[in-house]
Structures are given as C-alpha cells and as structure tokens.
Amino acid sequence: QVQLVESGGGAVQAGGSLRLSCAASGRTSGADMSWFRQAPRKEREFVARIGWSGSNTSFADSVKGRFTISRDNAKNTVYLQMNSLKPEDTAVYYCAARLRYSSDYRVPTSYDYWGQGTQVTVSS
What we know:
Layout (H helix, E strand, L loop, with lengths): L2 E5 L2 E4 L4 E8 L6 E7 L6 E6 L6 E3 L7 E6 L4 E6 L8 E8 L14 E2 L3 E6 L1
Parallel strand pairs: 2-11
Antiparallel strand pairs: 1-3, 3-8, 4-5, 4-9, 5-6, 7-8, 9-10, 9-11
C-alpha cells in the first residue's frame, strides 16, 4: 500500500510563490508522479508530471514557465515549485503516483495512488 501526503499549501498574494511537497511511503519505485488540482465546481485538472529519473517532465499549458516539478527518490518525495502565482491557480492540489503506462498521464483515472490534497489560495 502506498500513501501520499501533500504539504506546503497556503495563502499567498498574486505574484508570490509556494513550494508543495508530496512525501510517499511504500513502494513507488519506477512510478510516474504528477500533480493535479481541483478548484470549486471544477473537475480535477492535470498540472505537472515527472518520470522516475526526474528528466522527463510535462506541464499543463496554464502553468508552463511558472511551475517546476522535481523529485528526490532517496527521500521518496516529489515537489512542485509554483512561482508567479495567479488567482486562477487557487485550488486543492493533489499528488498522484502512476505505475501503469498504458493510459494518458493527463487523466486522473490513470493514477493508482492519491494524496489527500493541500489547499492553495491566491488572492489578487
């Protein structure tokens, strides 16, 4: 059983930064890990993905150039650095781990494990 726990969310002004962390327990070797977000009354949305080696990353168009994703496999942790935050970034942010590679990484149902989420609120 894999457990994912997000941390680092909070409230910031537009233009500010936050760094989210996702600490994993259990076996995650070889897993893609991603961040998703979900705003009130909206569906869960893909944000960023990172492969096992850390060299293969993908981002939603809405966050390209502002967010970066990284991982430290020795610590079993993935990070999301969020810069130049905008009010439209306000959402609950979730990390997810994917062991199967036959499905679209942008789709939430492709993932095997999910964290509980951490709230990010950006005010104008």
